[in-house]
Prior knowledge:
Blueprint: E1 23-25, E2 31-33, H1 34-40, E3 41-42, E4 45-47, E5 54-56, H2 67-81, H3 101-148, H4 153-191, H5 197-224, H6 228-247, H7 268-276, H8 286-291, H9 299-313, E6 317-323, E7 326-335, E8 338-341, E9 354-357, H10 358-363, E10 371-378, E11 381-390, H11 395-405, E12 415-421, E13 429-432, E14 455-457, E15 462-465, E16 477-480, E17 490-499, H12 501-508, E18 517-524
Parallel strand pairs: 6-9
Antiparallel strand pairs: 1-2, 3-4, 4-5, 6-7, 7-8, 8-18, 10-11, 10-18, 11-17, 12-13, 12-18, 13-16, 14-17, 15-16, 15-17
Helix pairs in contact: 2-3, 3-4, 3-5, 3-6, 4-5, 4-6
Amino acid sequence: MMDNNPEKCSVCFNSYDDNQLRPRTLPCGRTFCSQCINNAIKNGQLTCPSCRAEHAATAATQFPINYGMEALIRKLKGIEVVPEKTLPAKSIKAPARGISKKLHSMVQEQKSSISTLITSCEEVLSQLGEYRGQLGDWKTHHLQLQDRLCALVEQNKSAMKLLELEDTSVVDMTTQGEEGKTQLQVMVGNLDTVNTAQEVFMTINEVDQCNMEVENWLRKCQELFPNVKTVHTSVKVQETIREALEMMTSETGATADPVHLGDSASSIMDKVQEITGEIPRKQLTVEDLRRMSEPVKRLVEASRVLAVKRLVEAGRVLAVQEDQDGRRSARITLQDGQLYLHPLLRQPTPDHAHTLQESEVVGVLESSCTLAFLDLGWAGSTRGRVTIRLTPDTPLARQFVLLCTGQRGHTYRNTKLLQVWRKGQPGECVGGGDYESNDGEGGAPLLPDLQGQYRKSARAGAVLARWSPESPRSAQFIIITRDRQDGVHWSCVFGDVVSGLDVVRAAVNHSDITEVTVVDCGVVLPL
């Protein structure tokens, strides 16, 4: 059903505001006011009033504010502020016949100049609105932190005072900007109604004065916002309180030198992000992931690395691949300081997620020894992770990566282990990898030629092809769990288990090997 009142919450039908009724977007994409979201949360769960999707939640503040909706509301209010009667009906008429071409040209130049200024006004007003929304979020965070950590109440209050002053300044400047924009729009109408040379000159003088005032306003916005001390203090106090809660320390870290802002022509929110180290959507890069394992020296770099880490830990970083059938996405997770890339799946991409191209992420694997992983589970739970070091530059290893990442559309995820040979004896091994039929009859190759120089092994942990590289089932694999002692070596070995061999042995001892499933898989990102 079409929503004819997007500026109102569809649950309580009240208009959104910048306090209790701020619009917030759920992971399912629906937007409701903060008050209705809080009222709908029961026992740590929130059921979307529209699509009935379930979301884990304890408070509305954990969902992102819909800044686009707030911008729309401001625009709608801006339209209401300027009634039609302020723009004379004559404004739609062609220029009067009584002025010369030269004067007409002057009129057009003035209109063009005003139009440019109006556009600049709208851009900066939008930035101020977004900036004010961010200030509001920070104020909310500070209030929550203040309740949790009494030892830092005074510092928190100081940061709040700075934010209040900044917020008041933003409101004042926003009011001035709205008034200037309105006056510019009136000037456009006046220029369209001039009929004599005297009227042209008088109107142009008024336009020059109006232009000068708006240009001064634009310059003041660039000079005043954001206040480096306010933003830097706010972010540092927030970080310090969080660290204090985790580490039980009283250090505040709020005395660090403020960062130096770059180009003054940057937008307000660009400068805010430069101070805070936050990463705008679509600006996350593979290099940001790489920096997580490198030492950093500058405060801005450290802030950005911390921001990236938080995004990954929150599950908000995905690798995506577009094809003719749509988009697939893969999770990127962090565990014990190591990044893992999971398989591509056709699943909804959360609105708040940061995405990277799968090709860029996987590109870092091509020139290094690749670590892949299989998460084995049975009886409804994951029992452990098996990490495999693949032999570089072998076709079977490259095929194994493709089936762990799902780049070609197929994956080992949700496949069964198929059979155990020599159970409890030297040379014990287990097979799996039939991604097609899951019964041992499938597992077609994904690469045209799997011939290569492969080694032999009789050692536990070796990973090899169950069938020959020429077989139509060459995607199936075997993992040796006990050393052979009869002098026979298996061929077509393309990897070795480096951790988790105990998990494979536990799976082999399960009463029914076909109940053991690869519940997840992927590769380790060597960043």
